[in-house]
Write a structure and sequence with these properties.
Order of helices and strands: HEHHHHHHE
Organism: Methylobacterium jeotgali
Strand content: 5-15%
Protein name: Bacteriophage protein
Number of helices: 7
Mean pLDDT: 88
Structural class: mainly alpha
Radius of gyration: 22 Å
Number of strands: 2
Distance between the termini: 49 Å
Length: 165
């Protein structure tokens, strides 16, 4: 019995697989949205990406302890992310490019929200009395690390880009 092709989906499958392979998901603080506005009387502050890095790994030379939030946030959703990307791989083999794109957005949102939750929930090394005094001098009342203005937390997001960009 000869093989009869009723519907050739080769093009759709190859396109969806190419989308999956040629795409990368980046989670963090994109350079184009990293800048922060200076407060009244303050010189230009470091951008949110610089602050995020410093908080993630600490700056021992400036007596700033590490307060990891990015890596633990992403690690917390890794099993869900892997499951979603496996589903995307199956969808790509079925020729469903839309499902691949949707999976990347879903995984990006999972990671973004996990990082933001980690910033909100901690736990982190407490702020020093000196830092708390500086906060109070600026009219701030909060004592939680990483949450002075909320700008760092809001800066975390995700982007989907083609590899090579």
């Amino acid at each position: 019995m000869p093989l009869v092709v009723k519907k050739d989906r080769t093009e759709a499958v190859l396109s969806a697989v190419a989308d999956l392979v040629k795409t990368k998901l980046l989670v963090g603080i994109p350079a184009e949205t990293a800048d922060r506005a200076a407060e009244a009387g303050e010189p230009q502050p470091p951008n949110n990406a610089t602050i995020g890095y410093a908080m993630e790994f600490g700056l021992p030379e400036r007596n700033i302890p590490a307060r990891p939030h990015l890596l633990p946030g992403v690690q917390a959703v890794l099993p869900q992310a892997v499951s979603r990307l496996r589903t995307a791989g199956t969808a790509a083999i079925d020729g469903d490019s839309g499902a691949v794109t949707k999976a990347y957005h879903t995984v990006g949102l999972l990671a973004q929200n996990a990082i933001r939750a980690k910033i909100t929930e901690g736990p982190f090394v407490p702020l020093s009395p000196r830092t708390l005094a500086r906060r109070r001098a600026r009219g701030r009342k909060g004592e939680k690390p990483l949450t002075d203005t909320g700008a760092l937390r809001a800066a975390y997001t995700y982007v989907i880009r083609g590899k090579g960009r």
